[in-house]
Amino acid sequence: xxxxxxxxxxxxxxxxxxxxxxxxxxxxxxxxxxxxxxxxxxxxxxxxxxxxxxxxxxxxxxxxxxxxxxxx
Amino acid sequence: xxxxxxxxxxxxxxxxxxxxxxxxxxxxxxxxxxxxxxxxxxxxxxxxxxxxxxxxxxxxxxxxxxxxxxxxxxxxxxxxxxxxxxxxxxxxxxxxxxxxxxxxxxxxxxxxxxxxxxxxxxxxxxxxxxxxxxxxxxxxxxxxxxxx
Lengths: 72, 148
Known about the structure:
The complex is a heterodimer of chains A (72) and B (148). Chain A is mainly alpha-helical and 72 residues long. Chain A is built from three helices and two strands, in the order βαβαα. With 148 residues, chain B is α+β, with helices and mostly antiparallel strands. Chain B has two domains: 4-65, Arc Repressor Mutant, subunit A, CATH 1.10.10; 76-139, Super Roll (Bactericidal permeability-increasing protein, domain 1), CATH 3.15.10. Chain B is 33% helix and 24% strand. Chain B has helices at 4-20, 26-33, 37-49, 89-99, and strands spanning 54-55, 62-65, 68-69, 76-79, 82-85, 103-108, 115-121, 124-125, 131-134. In chain B, helix 2 packs across helix 3. Classes of the chains: A mainly alpha (72), B alpha+beta (148). At the A-B interface, strand 1, helix 1, strand 2 and helix 2 of A face helix 1, helix 4, strand 7, strand 8 and strand 9 of B. Strand 2 of chain A pairs antiparallel with strand 9 of chain B, so a sheet runs across the interface.
């Protein structure tokens, strides 16, 4: 997951490295994802999220569609 | 199967990593827990198997205690007088979320190299310039987490 100045920089990077355009997050979206994913990582009762929980988190941030699909 | 020791090792390695801004060795964790290095090593392997941490391929010492990365990366996090590294920009933000403190991520545009910073204060990013690109589809993230 890399940081870019804007969409045209992503397009340039994808062309340079022959990579398809993937998923894009705004900084506020990424912050919410990071907070939900890691906010409790140092807590004694931390556990890895289930597939259902992760799907619900991605969906709550508007991250839906084939790129964000977690199921095989 | 996660054991009580696994949880103790997880908590202790995170505390020590945060305290020193360096990944603790197996020996250090064993000393802190008054446990045998062999038992701690086995616990770390189980934690890695459960995707709680990532171990180096040969030494089997900590590479990532996500969101913390044990080696320098282009995603530097400054919190008070400590400097940490995230494996990616998501993890760098994750360090700030985990430590619940005002901080900044120092990085650069992956395309052109222009310096960029994301500041977080009061639990919110105060600068929202820039966007994040995920090159790897979500279901493939853990197929090669180092590449991801």
